[in-house]
Amino acid sequence: MGLFKSSQGNQADNIGREDSQNYAPPPGPPPSHRPSNEEYHAPRPSLPPGHNYDLPPPGPPPSHKVDPPPYHNWTVIPDTALLPPPPSLGHEASPTGNASLSDADRAHDWCRTYPLIRPHQPAAVHLDSVKNGNLELVRPSEFQGGLSKAGLGCWRGSTVPGGRDACLLSSLPCYFALADSPLATGMKKIIYFEVKVLSYGRGRGGDASSLALGWCALPYPTWRMPGWERGSLAVHGDDGRKYVNDTWGGKDFTSAIQAGQTVGLGMVFSIPDTPPDYASSPAQTPSINVDVFFTRNGIKESGWSLHEELDAQIDLGVDGLDGQFDLYAAVGVFGSIEFEVNFNKTRWLWQPSLS
Asked: CA 331 → CA 98, 166, 307, distances in Å?
């Protein structure tokens, strides 16, 4: 059997020979091949009917402006008198007297614990007392010195050398929010009082003694000068700066208050000339205009709008001072000083009729 091939083997050999004779590769290069000297053209996209692909689109390119904007003459300087005044610059500390950090921290905690008191409708007897200037000056526990009545609505005080900070307050509000608001009466309301500095001694350490006059909503930490904590504003006599809810160094305002001078501080509450913009937030549009003015020896010297532009980094707002709370007269003292406070308008050097 080893001498003969099978018939099946002979058939396979014949098929292989037929394949090599009948099948050949297709002519030309494969579909993916193109000669190196032939330039490639991407297929054209399908075009809308009637569109000539070889012509540019009508009109200028999208970035082209037919009419350029008018030239702005940057050399023309606007009239700055038409612009609102810039906000006063605040200071981080006073150049004269500064309280301790522990006193400040204690006051901040105290104010967080005791919020401002909502106003109440005053009795007729209280309204008459304020109208006639028949007010008392309340001595706080921090006050070191003497205080006596020198006439109707007139109080005379003196402090000891090195006396610590103390804030004396009027016995009644000079502004009753529910009775005096222009929104309730339709008329403006002016509150005012005067202080005469009789003499200065020496203060704490190397600081000169001084006095501050201001306005406060209650309750107020009486070991702090007015203007330093929420719900208060004041002008300080040692540096001449104004303080509005300002626990830092105040803002430049006037010159220092000298011995022998009589100074006064007033507030004017009135209805805005233009109605409020209801599209803006209440914080941006005050419902009552509040202006503060300062007098020296009977002459109105300077003032500011309570709602002036504020410094967002330093200013703490005007909470308690915008006519929504009762306001008390405040006299702050430190060091050795003799002074006289007048709530009785017949004793004032400045008179509202002269303003």
From this structure: 17, 8, 23
Does residue 249 contact residue 94 with C-beta atoms inside 8 Å?
A: yes
DSSP per position, 207-229: PBPEEEEEEEPSS--TTS-TTSS
- Extract the tokens encoding 228: 């330093």
In this structure, are residues 172 and 126 in contact, taking their beta carbons and an 8 Å threshold? yes
The contacts of residue 168 (CB under 8 Å, 6+ apart) are 137, 138, 139, 140, 143, 147, 157, 222, 330, 331, 332, 333, 341
What pTM does this model have? Answer: 0.71
The sign of the dihedral angle between the CA atoms of 206, 209, 214, 216 is positive
> What does the alpha-carbon distance between residue 329 and residue 265 come to, in Å, rounded to a whole number?
9
Kindly give the confidence (pLDDT) of every residue in the chain, 355 residues in length, as a single tens digit, with 9 standing for 90 and above.
443 344 444 444 444 444 445 666 777 666 655 555 555 555 555 555 665 656 666 666 666 555 655 655 555 555 555 544 555 544 444 445 556 788 889 999 999 999 999 999 999 999 999 999 999 999 999 999 999 999 999 999 999 988 889 999 999 999 999 999 999 999 999 999 999 999 998 655 545 688 999 999 999 999 999 999 999 999 999 989 999 999 878 899 999 999 999 999 999 999 988 755 555 554 455 689 999 999 999 999 999 999 875 655 455 688 899 999 999 999 999 999 999 999 999 999 999 875 5
